[in-house]
Every structure is written in structure tokens, then in C-alpha cells.
Specification:
3 strands; elongated; 2 helices; Fusion Protein Consisting Of Minor Coat Protein, Glycine Rich Linker, Tola, And A His Tag, Chain: A, Domain 2; 24% helix; 87 residues; alpha+beta; three-stranded antiparallel sheet
Amino acid sequence: MQQLRNTIIAEVKYPEYLIGSGIVGTSIVTFSIDAYGEITEKKITKSLGSSFDKIILEASKQIKIIELSEDLYHGETKIFVPIRFTK
């Protein structure tokens, strides 16, 4: 999960045109993952607004599959990734 979070955070930037808005907080993106580690769905489950959602989903486009530990993973699952936005 850390790999997934790090990949997204590296790409996510606070929207420049909203810097003066004072909006801060955490969005959550949920990934549905099949038994092979392929991401079958990405959706925002906690939103700070459509501008932030768009940035998160764009950053997560490049992620198609994640490596899963067999010790921890057995079948389909969901992973919730919090993304913190600060000015």
C-alpha cells in the first residue's frame, strides 16, 4: 500500500488557482483490486471538491497493478489511500 500512496503523492500538487482559497484537508481515493493485483476501480470516497478529485484521479491513471504480499492478501480487496492537501 505504501508503494501506491507514494506514487500518487509524488504526482499530486495543490491546484495553483485555489491557493488563496484556504481549502485544506484530506481526500480519500479507494482502489478496488482483484485477486491478481490489478486495479479494477478507482473512486474518490471523501472529496475536497472536484478540482482536487481530478488531480488525484489523474495522478492515479498510471497505476494499473500493484504488487501484493501473499501473506496479507487473499482475493479481492479495497485499499483506501488518504491524500492530504495543505497550502
